[in-house]
Amino acid sequence: MIHREGIPFLGYTLIIILLLVIFSFFLLSRLIFVFTSFFFIILYFFFILFFRNPKRNFYEIHEKNYNKEIIISPADGKILNIQRIFENEFLKKNCICLSIFMSPFNVHVNRFPVSGKVIYVKYHPGKYMIAWITKSSLHNEHTTTVVETHKGKKILFRQIAGFLARRITIYAKKNSMVKKGDEFGFIKFGSRVDVFLPLNSIILVKKGEKVTGGETKISIIPL
Prior knowledge:
The structure is a single chain. With about 220 residues, this protein is an alpha+beta fold. It has helices at about 5-25, 30-50, 135-140; strands at about 70, 75-85, 95-100, 110, 115-125, 140-150, 155-160, 170, 175-180, 185, 190-195, 200-205, 210, 215-220. The strands form 3 sheets. It has an 8-stranded antiparallel β-sheet with strand order 9-5-6-7-11-3-2-13. Strands 1-14-12 form a 3-stranded antiparallel β-sheet, with no helix packed on it. Strands 4-10-8 form a 3-stranded antiparallel β-sheet, with no helix packed on it. The longest helix has 21 residues, at about 5-25. The two termini are about 40 Å apart. The mean pLDDT is about 85.
């Protein structure tokens, strides 16, 4: 499936590519025309892959009976860092920050890591430094969302724009009830997602490990 964020982009891009191919057919040599056409086909295929939206399902069967909160990955990518850090925007306390780096080749749909009620949503304009730099989480364009789970835990997560990512889209709405694994946003062309967890969380992944948004269990919070 193609994500809705990509439909207008792919439509406009296809028109531009067709015009460029027609231009090269009439004005350039046959060899250059073939090379140019091949390049545009590969480029357009990359754009289609970038906006892919595979179906993901995380089943919470029997989870309500467990004395724990299971956190799933909000994004496809690689675990960039796991560190203890003070969260000063909303939680105002020390947390375990788990950072996920999304390359241009990853699926860029962002999904809720927990179910519950959205109690905070805020967009922050900013710069576009390389996403794996630590200070990019505060200085780059980013969004902050907090979900209070059915078991009373407040989980904060951020979409962070990177050097190539020039647009963050967020669907989360304050006071709405959300389900784990459902879409909460989309980031275009590479970026990062941070998840802030309580200090007593049991981390199930390690630095450098690849994770799948909406499927991979990244943490368990004992209750």
